[in-house]
Amino acid sequence: MAAGRSPPTLLLLGAAGGGKSLLVGTNLTDLRLPRKVTVRELGGCMGPIWPSYYSECSALLFVVDASNPTQVSSSCIQLLSVLSAAPLASVPVLVLFNKIDLPCYMSLVEMKSLFRMQDIVSCATQPITMLETSARDGTGLTEVLQWLRTALKDPC
After folding, report:
1. Over the stretch 104-155, which tens digit does the pLDDT of each residue have?
2. What is the signed CA dihedral for 126, 132, 133, 138, rounded to 10 degrees?
3. Gap between the Cα atoms of 40 and 24, Å rounded
4. Quick check: helix, strand or coil at residue 98?
5. What distance in Å separates the CA atoms of residue 80 and residue 129, rounded to the nearest whole number?
6. H or E element, residue 22
């Protein structure tokens, strides 16, 4: 990292109760991937202020509770709102369908269908990747870290 250059910022967004805090443990933390990355977790109830953080965003993780079918429509609306924000037009996005360790979770195929992810991906300006995760037991977290390394690699 060049002197004076701040580390890239990753926004971790999604509806309340999706498992964001369990993924990072706090609302602001640093990761080494091997370079330093700042992770800012903004809860679902903070949705009205999310846009004030978009300009500093280098990558976006959007967390969805895959075990809560009643939250699907509101999560989809939040995701569409985030994807339509001009400052995020070229920011890579990782949609995490979390809580797959619970017996009532919806599969990736079901979640893609309910979210109409094929339509969202075809209309979005951002590159979008989807993964299943369990913040509780660690399933999928290796793939999340690999995505982060790829999405945030230095242009140098």
Report:
1. 888 889 988 888 899 999 999 999 999 999 988 989 999 999 999 999 885 4
2. -120
3. 9
4. strand
5. 15
6. helix 20-24
In what side-by-side order are the strands of the sheet with 28-32?
28-32, 36-41, 9-14, 57-65, 93-98, 128-132
- Under a CB-based contact definition with an 8 Å cutoff, are residues 42 and 13 in contact? yes
Q: Please, are residues 28 and 76 in contact by the beta-carbon 8 Å criterion? A: no
User: For residues 66 and 132, what is the distance between their CA atoms, to the nearest angstrom?
Assistant: 8
Which residues lie below 8 Å from residue 117, measured CB to CB, with a gap of 6+?
95, 111, 128, 130
pTM confidence score: 0.88
| Dist CA 144 CA 133 (whole Å) | 9
Over residues 32-81, the pLDDT tens digits come to 887 888 999 888 788 899 999 999 999 999 999 999 988 888 899 999 99
DSSP assignment string, 122-133:
HH-SS-EEEEE-
Gap between the Cα atoms of 82 and 51, Å rounded? 8
Q: How far is 98 from 106, CA to CA, in rounded Å?
A: 10
